[in-house]
């Protein structure tokens, strides 16, 4: 992710650099003619413009790195150092402040010369201040020594491949998670209970059976009480009638009783 982020910033700073203007490019051409630098140094790199806004001590810091020997590496080291020290926003404001100086190093169609698009860079840089970076800036791999200087398309291709792989990994992870969830849900639907076995879940059936049994028991108890009460009353009435017939009591007394 850090490599991808740095490649994107490099692509922005590298976009539309002039090849035939600027004192830095002229000085690089003179160095190449004198044999003090390789042919790759004649290619425009964003370090030529970045060093214009750096003070003497900052320049000395990047020129004194042990393993960084090219301007490509110094530009990349500066970018990673700015991320480490959360100073990228401040540097970007300095790079965009002087439009006249920008026009000397960049073409009119470049990203940095587009006010609408370039105004988003400081905001993006400010959003990175909450992240703690610890990137090694004195790394020989940053020199980028090869047969030709990495172009903007190469940087974009590299960063795009990194993003694609990250998206692919995350998509695969989400897909596998969805497959697991779907599989676990399908199991409960596909499993059908046999006729000889109790349907799932067994716990629910037992609870329902217990509740049904308790309700039936209450109903029986209420009916039994009513029946027993009626039987007692019938027995009492039957006993009174029998007693009246035996003793031969008058109908009036029977009525009174």
UniProtKB/TrEMBL annotation:
<dbReference type="InterPro" id="IPR004012">
    <property type="entry name" value="Run_dom"/>
</dbReference>
<feature type="region of interest" description="Disordered">
    <location>
        <begin position="233"/>
        <end position="257"/>
    </location>
</feature>
<dbReference type="Pfam" id="PF02759">
    <property type="entry name" value="RUN"/>
</dbReference>
<dbReference type="InterPro" id="IPR037213">
    <property type="entry name" value="Run_dom_sf"/>
</dbReference>
<feature type="domain" description="RUN">
    <location>
        <begin position="1"/>
        <end position="140"/>
    </location>
</feature>
<protein>
    <submittedName>
        <fullName>Sorting nexin-29</fullName>
    </submittedName>
</protein>
<dbReference type="InterPro" id="IPR047329">
    <property type="entry name" value="RUN_SNX29"/>
</dbReference>
């Amino acid at each position: 992710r850090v490599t991808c982020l740095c490649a994107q910033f490099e692509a922005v700073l590298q976009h539309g650099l002039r090849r035939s203007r600027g004192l830095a490019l002229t000085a690089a051409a003179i160095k190449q003619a004198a044999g003090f630098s390789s042919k790759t140094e004649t290619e425009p790199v964003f370090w030529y413009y970045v060093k214009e806004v750096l003070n003497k001590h900052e320049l000395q810091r990047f020129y004194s790195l042990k393993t960084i020997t090219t301007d490509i590496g110094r530009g990349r080291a500066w970018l990673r150092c700015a991320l480490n020290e959360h100073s990228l926003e401040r540097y970007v404001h300095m790079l965009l402040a002087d439009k006249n100086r920008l026009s000397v190093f960049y073409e009119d169609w470049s990203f940095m010369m587009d006010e609408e698009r370039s105004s988003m860079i400081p905001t993006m840089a400010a959003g990175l201040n909450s992240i703690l970076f610890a990137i090694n800036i004195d790394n020989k791999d940053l020199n980028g020594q090869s047969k030709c200087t990495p172009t903007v398309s190469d940087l974009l291709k590299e960063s795009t491949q990194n993003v694609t792989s990250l998206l692919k990994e995350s998509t695969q992870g989400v897909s596998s998670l969805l497959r697991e969830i779907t599989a676990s849900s399908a199991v409960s639907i596909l499993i059908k209970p046999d006729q000889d076995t109790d349907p799932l879940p067994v716990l629910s059936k037992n609870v329902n059976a217990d509740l049904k049994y308790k309700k039936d028991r209450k109903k029986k108890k209420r009916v039994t009480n009513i029946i027993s009460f009626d039987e007692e009353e019938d027995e009492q009435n039957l006993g009174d009638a029998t007693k009246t017939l035996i003793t031969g009591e008058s109908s009036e007394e029977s009525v009174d009783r």
